[in-house]
Amino acid sequence: MRKKGVDILLASSPENVFYTSGFPVSLSATNRILWILRGVYPAFTVIPRIGEPTLIVRSASAEIARDFSWIKDQRYYTVPIYIERTPDRKVKTFAKSALDALKRILEEKGASEGRVGIEEESVSLSFFEVLRRSLPKAMFVNADDAFRELRSIKSPDEISKIRKATEITEKAIEVSMNIIRPGVTEIELVRKLKQCMIEEGADWAHTQIAAGPYNSATPSWQPTDYKVKRGDVVMFDVGAVYEGYCSDIGRVAVLGGSSEKLATLYEISRQASEKAVEAVRPGVRASEIYRIGQQMVQERGYPKSSRGFLGHGVGINVHEEPRMAPDAEGTIEEGMVFTVEPGIYIPGWGGVRLEDMVVVTAEGCEMLTYLPKSLISC
Known about the structure:
Elements: E1 8-11, H1 14-21, H2 32-37, E2 44-48, E3 54-58, H3 62-68, E4 73-77, H4 98-108, E5 115-118, H5 125-134, E6 139-142, H6 144-152, H7 156-177, H8 186-199, E7 203-211, H9 212-215, E8 233-242, E9 245-246, E10 249-254, H10 260-278, H11 286-299, E11 311-313, E12 320-324, E13 337-340, E14 343-346, E15 350-353, E16 356-360, E17 365-367, E18 376-377
Helix pairs in contact: 7-8, 10-11
């Protein structure tokens, strides 16, 4: 906060409210569209430079806030939902609306004439205009970078949850791959994957399973009723979410044995992945990780191969900082968790991508993924 020169940090996105308070904004916090649909009931964390933070939530969510959040100062605003509560569970409302509660707390914390860091990417223009008019002497500055920087370094507890999400994801991949056979559809493979994640106590963050010469060559494919055929590449790009933290893993299977071309492409991807991982250590530029992996693919016969990034941070979101990209300006730091995922896509033939997760240590990095890197034949 001192670095940004702000007196107050205001968390408003579901991810950052959860990060700063432990309060799950919705039961599907990884699904932004559900939160947007419920956006009539926003939540905020107000973090002063000096003093204790305050959590603002609707009165109907008071029990959830008490059970999940570590913030002691919780303020509730009224919503038109009647809940029969016992005398020992009564909820005292602080304000009639979220905006009223936020205005009063900012004034209470002495920020009515101070500098308030807000998330410009999550606050609507209309809400910002109302807030600005309510506190005309306050200065509102963009603090999106501050939140991204904070979240890029994971605590031991966060790493533990990401590790568990990764373990569950790997098990789900194995379970789903076990039913690959002629005629099985992408949707059936996804259904099996999700079922395993739920049984293991997790939810799913994303489930992209693509099969065949066209689907698997599309990096962000959405599963369909396409039926797997012999000789098809089946690409998995999937991740579970455990206690609010995500994983992201990529593996490739082939039904009925590998061709020489597939084996060659897979080996290029594997070597590019290993070269990039070997370079991971504190102080290395994120752009250098990208260069090493991409250069390996280009030198091994695909000089025109290019991707916008070779990896990305993973945490509360599947995609967050840092990015392993050619224009990335930052350096790798201890405690960061990110993917390494070189890939080759040939429309009409198929695609190959390995995606592993690493956590940066003082000496280098630790692999979080343990699934074999060999091409899997089904």
